[in-house]
Amino acid sequence: MDVFATRAEFLEVNCYAVRAEGHDDAIFVDSGFDCAPGLAEIVEEENLVPRAVFLTHGHPDHILGLTNVLSRWEVPVYLGAPDRYRLDRPAETLSPQFAPMLEPLVKDWIAPEVNALLDAQTVEVSGLTITAVAAPGHTEGSTLLRVQADGEEIIFTGDVVFAGAIGRVDLPGGDASAMAESLQAFTTLPDVPIYPGHGPGSRVGHELATNPFF
């Protein structure tokens, strides 16, 4: 697989494009504000054909780029079912301290149609097999995306696990107990590369050995 990344402007969200070896078709993972120009540059340079957007969770910093992304590419969007409500009023789903920053970003927001992802659901897209793993705690619908192709696997962890850290649980919808269970489930995953929603990549095994939250 090939993984390409661009960093969105608001809260420096990592937004990814992924393709299977030998394919031009690709998927996007997360859609931060404003990621569309960066993704368009990747698409042009790599001759990609976007086929879907997968969202790791519904926080505004991971979804507000959808307006511009979907205006360029008419593709389906997938999101963990419990986070669907967050698309309706995204400015209200973070703590009040973020509200002033979000107001100018949501003035033209129209919630897009999304496909609800359920735990263990599998989606096949252009040589990629994407398996949703429910991982609540940061949000109710936070989802790990296990992506496989030709015997290779990578995992997009969103804001569940970062390199050396984990996502916060003190925002609306956060749940420390649920996060503890999600982290326990994370310990059972294979030692493969992970691509978080913020910061550098890592591996499952490296995080289990060095991340103080495990």
Q: Would you mind describing this structure in some detail?
A:
- The chain is α/β, with parallel strands linked by helices.
- The protein contains 6 helices and 14 strands.
- The protein has helices at 36-46, 60-63, 66-72, 99-102, 176-186, 204-210, and strands at residues 2-7, 14-19, 25-29, 49-55, 77-80, 115-117, 122-125, 128-134, 143-149, 152-158, 161-162, 165-166, 193-196, 202-203.
- The strands form 3 sheets. It has a 6-stranded mixed sheet with strand order 1-2-3-4-5-6, with helices on one face. A 6-stranded mixed sheet has the order 7-8-9-10-13-14.
- The protein is globular and about 40 Å long.
- The two termini are 28 Å apart.
> What letter string, H or E per element, gives the SSE order?
EEEHEHHEHEEEEEEEHEEH
Main β-sheet, spatial strand arrangement: 1-2-3-4-5-6
Please compute the radius of gyration using only Cα atoms.
16 Å
Q: Could you give the distance between the termini?
A: 28 Å
**How many extended strands?**
14
Main sheet makeup: 6 strands, mixed
Sequence stretches where pLDDT stays below 50 over 5 or more residues: none
Structural class: alpha/beta
Count of runs of 4 or more consecutive helical residues: 6
Q: Helix fraction?
A: 10-25%
Overall mean confidence score, pLDDT: 93
Shape: globular
Strand content: 25-35%
Question: Helices and strands in order, then pairings?
Answer:
Layout (H helix, E strand, L loop, with lengths): L1 E6 L6 E6 L5 E5 L6 H11 L2 E7 L4 H4 L2 H7 L4 E4 L18 H4 L12 E3 L4 E4 L2 E7 L8 E7 L2 E7 L2 E2 L2 E2 L9 H11 L6 E4 L5 E2 H7 L4
Parallel strand pairs: 3-4, 4-5, 5-6, 10-13
Antiparallel strand pairs: 1-2, 2-3, 7-8, 8-9, 9-10, 11-12, 13-14
